[in-house]
Design goal:
The complex is a heterodimer of chains A (312) and B (194). Chain A is of the alpha+beta class and 312 residues long. Chain A contains 8 helices and 11 strands. In chain A, the strands form 2 sheets. In chain A, strands 1-4-5-10-9 form a 5-stranded mixed β-barrel. A 4-stranded antiparallel β-sheet of chain A has the order 3-2-8-7, with no helix packed on it. In chain A, helix 1 packs antiparallel against helix 2 and helix 2 runs antiparallel to helix 7. Chain A is elongated and about 105 Å long. With 194 residues, chain B is mainly α. Chain B has a single domain, classed as de novo design (two linked rop proteins) (Up-down Bundle). Chain B contains 7 helices and no strands. The longest helix of chain B has 66 residues. Classes of the chains: A alpha+beta (312), B mainly alpha (194).
């Protein structure tokens, strides 16, 4: 559907430009064609936003304990996974250009201070825990913005304990970083000075294959218990191939749908106005309208063009 | 004047064509999302059946474990087996639902009677099966809630403007939510007495 829209509008823009170029008005129609393409692009963005809004609105929320595989929506508290210190943090510093800092100081501060951290984490509700693999997710988090004389700061984060909304594709039995944690625990156990006391069941001073197998099982179970992982592993939510939608947000579903609805409506109106204006401009340049009117419009257009040139 | 009129008509026609195209695209979007909602409901219903089947599959194991201890509770065990057999022979959703209710009642009776057999209660396999079946029941209840939520989204969408236009064209009607009512409970009592 959206590819068809893109194809239609771009084709129309190219055809208009080619036809009027052939008629000898090439230069003049660059403006109309550009506005038309801009309008078409805005129109298409509106439909992409609407598509996302539809997915959020039409997918009912599931409980994690009975999650079905496939495209799902869940809501629960965020929990850090394993030894990650953060879930999500984005911190941007931009220089505003003002202030009296010395060139040397400014150079120091211009070193990249931006920070972006996004780690796998858990979402927990009253029925269970789901593992979130945030690779290629669209993160929509509350933004804090502030500035001082010299710099502009923008920060957004998802912390442990935040209520998080997640829309993505569920798949089962993911081990994820569990294997890494088990490996680390096994290495640590081998270095333990009480290793033989703990795992040498028959006291012969050696660890047989059976004893080692039993030791690894105990170590695995202790890692699972420490990280509170369910017996059968956990459901992983990630970006699927079904529809490509994967959203993680610390806003509620209602806030997300309201925001998307406003964006969709604004883009749709802008898109339609731009394409209508582009058509109107093309018609004026084709002298469809009476000369007096066309002359006034083109005169005004030249004045705006001149003013823009002087400002720039 | 006639030139102005022609220009105005041409512009109006062009704008109308653009708005018409936008409306067609919008209508197609609504159609697609209503189809998606309908499929979501079918998927939710099938996923309840998946867990229900798993629950019924555990019943023979449970009965086998209990038989060894509850030699004098043949009637209680028979109710559980009857509910399972009724489910296996059911073809329609309504019948499967009744079998599910029948099993609920039979299992409650079985667990109540098992309180008189401490050795059974301490049996590892019995404890595992009881925990598993209870876990499946909780998951089934959650999936029924999800099914109802999916039905609620569908029912409200087909009644809203402008979706109601497309829904009427497709002859979509409101779907029933899952609910246990007195009629179903009476059916369960009849079934257990058979």
């Amino acid at each position: 559907m959206y590819l068809m829209s893109v194809f239609f509008f771009i084709s129309a823009a190219i055809i208009i430009t080619l036809v009027v170029s052939a008629l000898g008005y090439k230069t003049y129609f660059a403006f109309s064609a550009t506005v038309f393409i801009l309008g078409a692009a805005t129109y298409i963005c509106a439909f992409l936003k609407y598509r996302k809004l539809s997915f959020i609105r039409d997918t009912a929320s599931s409980k994690i304990g009975s999650l079905q595989m496939g495209f799902v929506e869940i809501y629960g508290r965020a929990k850090k996974a394993f030894n990650y210190s953060l879930i999500y943090r984005s911190f941007v510093i931009k220089e505003t250009g003002a202030g009296s800092s010395s060139a040397t100081e400014r150079e120091k501060i211009n070193i990249n201070r931006d920070e972006f951290v996004l780690n796998p984490f858990f979402i927990e509700d009253e029925t269970g825990v789901a593992y979130i693999n945030p690779d290629k997710a669209e993160i929509i988090a509350d933004n804090k913005k502030w500035s001082d004389r010299d710099y502009y700061y923008e920060e957004s984060e998802i912390k442990e304990g935040d209520y998080v909304y997640c829309l993505g594709t569920a798949s089962s039995g993911k081990d994820a970083d569990l294997q890494k944690e088990i490996y680390k625990a096994v290495i640590a156990a081998k270095k333990d000075e009480h290793f033989y006391d703990k795992y040498d069941a028959n006291g012969d001073g050696k660890i047989s294959e059976d004893e080692w197998s039993s030791a690894k099982k105990r170590i695995t179970q202790s890692v699972i218990a420490r990280h509170e992982i369910p017996e059968n592993g956990y459901v992983e939510i990630s970006k699927g191939t079904e529809n490509g939608v994967f959203i993680i947000s610390n806003k509620s579903e209602k806030q997300l749908t309201q925001k998307l609805f406003i964006q969709t409506a604004a883009m749709l109106i802008c898109g339609i106005l731009l394409t209508v204006f582009a058509v109107f401009d093309a018609l004026v340049r084709l002298e469809v309208f009476p000369n007096a009117f066309s002359a006034q419009y083109l005169g005004l257009f030249k004045k705006i063009n001149l003013a823009a040139t002087m400002i720039l | 004047m006639s030139i102005i009129l022609s220009a105005a008509i041409l512009l109006t026609a062009l704008i109308s064509v653009l708005i018409f195209i936008a409306l067609i695209v919008f209508a197609v979007n609504i159609y697609n999302s209503l189809i998606t909602l309908k499929i979501n409901i079918e998927r939710a219903s099938s996923n309840i059946d998946v867990l229900t089947k798993q629950r019924f599959d555990e019943i023979p194991n449970l009965v086998e474990v209990c038989k060894g201890y509850m030699r004098h509770e043949a009637k209680t065990l028979q109710e559980v087996v009857s509910a399972r057999n009724f489910f296996l022979n059911s073809k329609e959703t309504v019948q499967k639902l009744r079998a599910d209710f029948a099993l609920d009642g039979a299992l409650k009776g079985l667990y109540a009677v098992s309180e008189n057999y401490p050795e059974l209660k301490a049996n590892d396999e019995f404890m595992y099966l009881q925990k598993r079946i209870t876990g499946l029941e909780n998951a089934i209840a959650d999936r029924r809630e999800f099914y109802n939520a999916s039905v609620a989204v569908f029912n409200s969408r087909i009644k809203q403007i402008p979706d109601i236009v497309i829904a009427n064209f497709l002859k979509y009607e409101e779907k029933d939510m899952f609910k246990a009512d007195a009629q179903e409970n009476r059916q369960v009592e009849i079934l257990l007495k058979q």
